[in-house]
């Protein structure tokens, strides 16, 4: 079966290889590109980090020492593994989606907690939407 792969170029190769191994014919046509935003880190110290993409890990990793001892909540196991490999401590993985991540954070951290959501400019509204509605202070 021919399958269109539209992931960012740096991710498309692994997806294409997995499809070939499964007997498919990948057609790679990336429609996304991932580039650092070069946004500055906040001047305040968050109570916890929420990370919704493995793409955010590379931008965050050089600053990991500034986040020592701060809980890190990852959207799923692969993002958590990337954070751990980059040297972050106290990483907890959610089920793989933003709503599950919001539930996990809400079940762990007290309302009013100040959270830094490490994410790209274009992103889904979850988990920030649910957490803000529940009384958490979420900044991206």
Summed up:
This protein is of the alpha/beta class and 140 residues long. The chain has five helices and seven strands; from the N terminus they run βαββαβαβαβαβ.
Which helices and strands, and how do they pair?
Blueprint lengths: L1 E4 L3 H13 L3 E4 L19 E4 L2 H7 L11 E3 L2 H9 L5 E3 L4 H11 L5 E5 L9 H6 L3 E3 L1
Parallel strand pairs: 1-2, 3-4, 3-6, 4-5, 6-7
Walk me through this protein's architecture:
- With 140 residues, the protein is α/β, with parallel strands linked by helices.
- 33% of the residues lie in helices and 19% in strands.
- The strands form 2 sheets. Strands 5-4-3-6-7 form a 5-stranded parallel beta sheet, sandwiched between helices. A two-stranded parallel sheet has the order 1-2.
- The longest helix is centred in the first third of the chain and has 13 residues.
- The radius of gyration is 16 Å and the shape is elongated.
- The termini are far apart.
- The relative contact order is 0.16.
Features:
five-stranded parallel beta sheet, 140 residues, 5 helices, alpha/beta, 7 strands, elongated
Shape: elongated
Number of strands: 7
Structural class: alpha/beta
Q: How confident is the prediction overall: mean pLDDT?
A: 91
Beta-strand fraction estimate: 15-25%
Radius of gyration: 16 Å
Instruction: Estimate the helix proportion, in percent.
Output: 25-40%
Distance between the termini: 40 Å
The helix/strand series, from N terminus to C terminus, equals EHEEHEHEHEHE
Low-confidence segments, ≥5 residues, pLDDT <50?
none
- The total of helices stands at 5
- Give, in spatial order, the strands making up the sheet with the most strands: 5-4-3-6-7
The largest pleated sheet is described as:
5 strands, parallel
